Amino acid sequence: MHVNSVFFSSLGKKYFMGLSGLMLSGFIIVHLIGNLALLNSDRDPFNKYAHFLTQETGSLLYIAEFTLASIFLIHFIYAIVITYHNFFRARPVKYKMVVNAGHTSRKTIGSVTMIYTGLTILVFLVLHLLHFKYGQVVMYTTADGKYIRDLYSLVYQFFGNPVNVIFYILVMVLLGFHLSHGAWSAFQSLGINGKRFTPVAYSAGTLFAIIMAVGFIGLPVYIFILSGGSI
Asked: What is the DSSP letter of 140?
């Protein structure tokens, strides 16, 4: 079978886009759960969690990072391909307003802005990694004598600045819009749909998007209030 017929056929594009989207949604859930340790007034739990992931998993870390980066790349490439296809092959009449087309169609702000919110999230991800993963390294000794990086304090310092908090909130709102369409449409891309399932998937996707957005927004707001904020 020709490679293009597998990876770039109409069915192939939908399948890889949907599957990679669901995988990234799973990563977002795990990432939020791990970040909940920031709510603890004791910095040790979060720092030990971060230290375990980055220093004590050995080669598994590189495998996980390579896998995650590959999933991101696949999702990004297919997003560009699908957007290109829709832009140049769609009917010439532009939509003047966002409306729901009915049946299994769900035309929303989230659906028509997917490429823009996606690109914004990609830029944010790069900045996020540069600041936290590859940023300033401050070491400290935990209560049980471990000498590890104090990422907890770096996060609190970052979100003590209202500008950073506002920027983070805006991006998380865009993430919510992105997920509101992406989460449920992933099932359609994989061929999992139907008159009964689609409305449930749509509602579940919307709820998932709200929970993730609120969860990620709540963390910096909580940290800012707790730290007292600074300019």
From this structure: E
